[in-house]
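Justification of resources, computational component.

The compute hours requested in this renewal are based largely on the per-chain cost of generating structure records like the one below. Each record pairs the submitted sequence with a full structure-token output. That output is archived, and it is also reused by downstream analysis tasks.
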Amino acid sequence: MNNWSDYPIFLAVAESGSLTAAGKKLHMSQPTVGRRIRALEEHFGTPLLKKENGKMVPTTFGHGVLDHITRMQEEASAIDRSSASLEHSLSGVVRISATEGIGTAWLPGVLQVFRDSHPNITFDIGIGFREFNLAQREADIALRWQSPGEQNSLIAKKVADVTFGLFASPNYIQRRGSPSSLEDLTGHDAVIAMVKEEMPLWIHDENKNPLFMPENVTFRTNNIWAYDNALVAGYGIGALPLCSCGMLGNTDNLLRVLPNVSQQEALYLVAHEDLRRSTRIRAVYDFIADAMKKDAAFFLNGGESIFENPDANLHCGIDHEDNPKHKHVLTAG
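The structure output for this chain reads:
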């Protein structure tokens, strides 16, 4: 029996704790995951998983199998990285992971500037809030919020401070009025996006607890495009990067509320250290880092990216530009 393709399924179930969660991660149906696990257990003649506190956990034998699978996976990833590190030409595919917004609105236009002088490099962009595993070559380069991640053997660089503020549509403000203090927010309607680690997109304290979250959440989603459209449609108040108005074309559709309240989040550029020896990946990494530096004012204060309009000095909403007089609600780290 050839079990190679079943081992990653067992690993996914062990890591996620359920057949359903593993199926979502692997883009497989729950019955298919269950059938493949049963086939492995029949092959070994003993259970690999057991139910404990509502989760699927490895048996003693299962833990031993997992040790072997992990080593196999590490060796396979090392082969992939070795192959990438030997590539010295400025051609081929570079895989980049980023979140919605920066990955869908800012990054494509900026990378086209890079391709003007490197036409033989193509891009595969993975969009999502989960952290793509760089050691396993799910991506070559990643843009990550708040921290570079805890994986070993990463190279990382803080490339931007991004300022967030609170926004609502003119229609909503006309109907409900604009809050005059943080305390006023609790009586308003909120639009919420669930992002990294199921954390709501909102202003937070140093422990990542939402501050003055409105009691009435009228729209909740895990998709940033749906979130932006809900804000424009007038569902309520939500948090956005100041730069998002320029990226998403919402200059006339959203107004900033409580303009003296802001929050800054760090953005990191990350790659696996083995890939520094890949000429094309290193070139893309350095280009993105330099582009972020050149566009620092855009990420900090909003307006327009220099890659869209080098001479622009536009700002969306009321009192949009961040300044030292604003009351910052800063996150830790």
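The domain at 4-85 is CATH 1.10.10.10 (Arc Repressor Mutant, subunit A). Residues 312-333 have pLDDT under 50 and may be disordered.
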